[in-house]
Design brief:
Radius of gyration of chain A: 30 Å
Order of helices and strands of chain A: HHHHHHHHHHHEHEEHHEHEEHHHHHHHH
Largest sheet of chain A: 3 strands, mixed
Oligomer: homodimer
Number of strands of chain A: 6
Largest interface: A-B, 112 and 112 residues
């Protein structure tokens, strides 16, 4: 663990030289964490002390509020130095979070080339591969020898996001192949790149969905994924560390949507109460209104319920179990779709599988509830039978609804994660009550 | 996309030479996918055609059934060659999936050193950092010069899992620092390693939880994480590609547990019906039994319900909304705990935040249900009031239960994901009914 206290003390006592000595050893992530809790008034001063490249490493890791605070306190010239030092993808990420006036000031301060580059990247849609790539890559030509390629890496690689994979392009910048630095190191120095480069290229297009793009990095264990335009010209790369972030975000988004929350992009503790309320209330309201239909089913069978009140006692069991059984199926399918393990074409296999699982689950649960009704609740055999049969049918229907709706949602272009437990439960609640009352009126003749 | 059809045709026509020419260009992942759908009878033959190192790359990517099939068809000598070529971590992963007799045959065929190494790795607990690390890393000494270090990488790095980060150890193998290959390449060739190595080491211990370990890789954007034993001796590394797999698995596990499913480690379509049933039924059974308590609350208030049957119509609304509101809070907290954004110490801040959100949500929902009861269901003002007040209190309690239980579960050493929607819903169902009937008997004097 880092000695944050000691660092703070050095700052308080104005021992900047010693502070810089200690601070210089820290990695960018921990350094940003430390700066986040430094007194805001002295923050710009501390930031100014940092070396240019250290500052550029730390800056993208800071919270937007802190970035804004620093930007507002430093000169345009300092901003321009900072932005020219940052990786383009980090700058673009940052600009997307900052308020418009700050963004304008940064763009204004940046050099002409940097500004043009930033503007190009800001144009990619937020969920595209283009929006997470960086143009800072090393490219070589197929006609180079290994030693020439290594020389080129030495000359041009210093400011690049990675040098461990270099890309082979022709004069029109069309991607022809790639080679890992490790292969360059273990190959004879006079070997030609064209003889040893890998031509089975895995790549994404700028407008591809970013989650699909990063799934290639995880599937093929890549250090970086090349991103090309429609004419197959290399325009950027997505590195594995950015892929990790995208994957983490995607899983969080899935979990939030599955819990009926509109996805947030900020950590919980940093999100305001009103914002959190806004992310949750539309779904709660929608589900509330849907559940009133379930209520009206009860109203409809009011007479039956009045005559056999014990029936009401099993409503929570039926609704609860139905919701849980459907939720299991939908969560499994949603995750499978996210990971690409399940495709639209698998729908019949899935339904057949879930049907068998649901019969097994339904029978096991029905036997237990029948025994419980007879032995503990001491209901009549007929009522126990009504409950058991209803439960069996509810479980089968719940699993069917749970496994088909996510696939159908994807089919019509919705996020399958919407069809998770809350929605499935609401639908299954209504279905289970309908089944229950129908079977009750039939068997009990009410 | 790959031309699987053409490859199959070449095989069918026994054109092995042409087949090998085409097949050699394919990456290991796609090659494994192709082999998975080759006729099992000719599979061992095809596998034998592969070059030694190609075979070793493809083998770990195959399904356990196919691995077993190949192992059973090749000689002990061939097994020994294959295993010596595999990375230790891949071998260990593989052995964990194969049946005991196959494992024994593999261990028997392996060279003495490989077998000793494998056995050492098999001893790490399944969820430990040790179980996902590989010993195949490059280590150097602090007294080397840059050019000596690069020379050592050239000599020893070829079979290592990565050469992009090399580790500085002393004679006792204690980890002293690390350096990236890129820094070696951009440094003066006669510079000493001790002057340029990075000593702010981020590392894990062999027995650390593997998810905690890989979260360091994602937090600090590492290419590999060094793993040390209790005496700080370097014993292995976890590379970023393995971290991606662990993260993906961890997210899947969270989602499964949150949906009341015991986690599986196989893709859905490859898991049998009975296995899936076994993963789901214990939770359904447990939740079924819990929900019968909710049922007995209804039985307890049977008299009240009999006199004002319209009360029953609002049960689904109350139970459903309570479950959804609680599920939102618990999903948010569970994910925050998983990502390390939320810690035990935040509990009071979280409860205070959720309290305010729940009051906002509760009031919005109560107003709507009050209006609905009055205007659409045309209930008496008193009944509408009972429903609205019950809903407000239910939502507040649900969010409280939803945000505290995951943290408390973690506190006592359970997986917080258990405290997701299904459990929260079951608890909130009972609570909401108790509140509802209490308020009803008080206000309606029944």
């Amino acid at each position: 663990m880092l000695d944050f206290e000691n660092l703070s003390k050095l700052l308080e006592e104005n021992k900047y030289k010693e502070f810089m000595k200690e601070f210089d050893d820290i990695n960018a992530i921990d350094a940003a964490e430390f700066l986040s809790q430094v007194e805001p008034s002295i923050l710009p001063k501390v930031f100014r002390l940092l070396k240019k490249d250290t500052a550029a490493e730390i800056f993208p890791e800071l919270d937007p509020e802190i970035q804004e605070h620093i930007i507002s306190a430093i000169t345009d010239f300092e901003i321009s130095k900072l932005v020219d030092e940052l990786f383009i993808d980090d700058t673009v990420d940052m600009l997307e979070e900052l308020p418009a006036n700050v963004v304008n000031r940064i763009l204004h301060a940046a050099s002409v080339e940097t500004r043009a580059e930033i503007n190009k990247f800001l144009k990619y849609p937020p969920n595209s591969a283009g929006s997470v790539m960086t143009p800072e890559l090393v490219s070589i030509h197929a006609s180079m020898s290994v030693s020439e390629a290594i020389e080129r890496i030495r000359k041009t690689g210093k400011e690049k996001e990675t040098i461990y994979v270099v890309y082979v392009t022709n004069k029109a910048r069309v991607l022809k192949g790639f080679i890992e630095l490790r292969d360059l190191i273990f190959s004879p120095q006079d070997e030609l790149i064209e003889n040893i480069m890998d031509t089975s290229i895995i790549s994404a297009q700028t407008l591809d969905d970013k989650e699909t793009a990063v799934s290639l990095i995880s599937k093929y264990d890549l250090l970086a994924l090349p991103v090309v335009d429609t004419e197959n010209r290399l325009v950027g790369i997505v590195t594995v560390d950015d892929a990790l972030d995208v994957m983490e975000e995607a899983a969080t988004e899935d979990i939030e949507i599955m819990a009926a929350i509109s996805p947030t992009d900020k950590p919980y503790l940093k999100t305001g109460v009103l914002q959190l309320w806004l992310k949750r209330i539309p779904w709660l309201m929608l589900l509330l209104i849907s559940s009133t239909f379930t209520g009206s089913i009860i109203t409809h069978y009011e007479a039956a319920l009045g005559s056999v009140v014990i029936l009401t006692a099993f409503i929570p069991v039926l609704m609860g179990t139905g919701g849980n059984a459907g939720g299991q199926a939908s969560a499994t399918i949603i995750r499978g779709l996210s990971l690409g393990e399940i495709r639209m074409g698998n729908i019949f296999r899935i339904v057949w599988k879930e049907l068998r699982i649901s019969v097994l689950c339904g029978i096991s649960l029905s036997v237990v509830i029948f025994a419980k009704a007879m032995l503990i609740d001491r209901t009549s055999t007929m009522i126990a039978l009504v409950v058991a049969i209803s439960l069996l049918i509810t479980v089968i229907l719940a699993k069917f609804v749970g496994c088909t709706l996510p696939i159908l949602a994807k089919r019509v272009g919705f996020d399958p994660a919407v069809m998770a437990s809350p929605f499935i439960t609401t639908i299954v609640d209504a279905l289970s009550l309908l089944i229950y009352f129908q079977i009750a009126s039939y068997i009990l003749q009410i």
